[in-house]
Design goal:
Blueprint (H helix, E strand, L loop, with lengths): L13 H5 L35 H12 L2 E5 L2 E7 L5 H16 L6 H16 L5 E10 L5 E10 L20 E7 L8 H16 L4 E7 L3 H9 L3 E5 L12 E7 L8
Parallel strand pairs: 5-6
Antiparallel strand pairs: 1-2, 2-3, 3-4, 4-5, 6-8, 7-8
């Protein structure tokens, strides 16, 4: 079983996107801002240069309106699309998880945060074909808000990651990736709720019901959670993936019920 300190995350699509740059040396500093976590009425704009069809505009509005609270005995989690003002904070959360997972030295943190930020900006431009979710947690002791978790969803082929990890999932199917929970908030049921919320949003955004995700073979705790949630292993990485300095992964699939209320 994984130790409590083991990072809770899917095998990141960032693995294949960022690995070629990890030998570079770049320093770019970001500061975490409390204001970036506060809810905002700023529109979830898309930076895509392509014209949005009426259907795409409708889906974008669905994303704008999406917000799902969950109440735990220890606090409240609100999961919603990431705001543009939260990109720095999410970049740090993902880069910290990436460093933990690959046992990279801490001096890679600034470089990774810089690369992840650019990755997130690029992925956000694909709205509404892909979405970045964040979970804001408020504990019952002091009521302070903090960024607790994040996840990325691609809903169709246009939102699929061009550098998807292996085994490669079907690009036309919904795919969940980069799911990460803040270290200090793990083991509280937040990851399980984040996964369920991703599935709920997928049901609102597409009629496709086969959902895919990756899990590293060494990540026993997440693997157990995915299996309990109904995901099954459909493919396993070749040993040759080690030549790219990546961990072997499972490709997992779950068929969501036709009726979202059955989730």
């Amino acid at each position: 079983m994984a130790s409590p300190s083991q990072p809770f995350s899917l095998s990141l699509s960032l693995d294949s996107s960022l690995k070629p740059f990890l030998s570079a040396h770049h320093h770019h500093h970001h500061r975490f801002s409390r204001s970036s976590l506060q809810c905002s009425t700023a529109p979830l704009t898309t930076h895509s240069r392509t014209f949005l069809s009426p259907l795409s505009l409708s889906k974008q509005q669905t994303l704008l309106d999406f917000s799902q609270p969950h109440h735990f005995p220890h606090g409240t989690l609100l999961i919603r699309p990431m705001l543009e003002t939260e990109i720095d904070a999410v970049s740090h959360l993902l880069s910290e998880s990436f460093i933990e997972t690959l046992f990279l030295p801490p001096n890679y943190a600034d470089l990774l945060a810089f690369l992840v930020k650019n990755y997130l900006l690029d992925r956000r431009s694909l709205l509404p074909h892909a979405a970045l979710l964040v979970g804001i947690y408020s504990n019952d002791r002091d009521g302070l808000d903090e960024l607790a978790c994040t996840a990325e969803i691609s809903f169709d082929e246009r939102g699929a990651n061009s550098a998807s990890p292996t085994p490669v999932p079907p690009p036309e199917c919904p795919y969940i990736s980069n799911m990460t929970v803040k270290n200090s908030l793990r083991r509280k049921g937040i990851g399980k709720q984040l996964l369920k919320t991703c599935e709920d949003l997928i049901c609102k955004m597409t009629e496709k019901r086969d959902v895919y995700l990756h899990c590293r073979m060494v990540d026993k705790t997440p693997l157990s959670m995915y299996k309990k949630a109904g995901y099954q292993i459909v493919k396993t990485d070749s040993f040759l993936v080690w030549l790219t300095l990546q961990r072997r992964k499972y490709l997992m699939r779950k068929t969501l019920p036709a009726n979202p209320e059955e989730l």
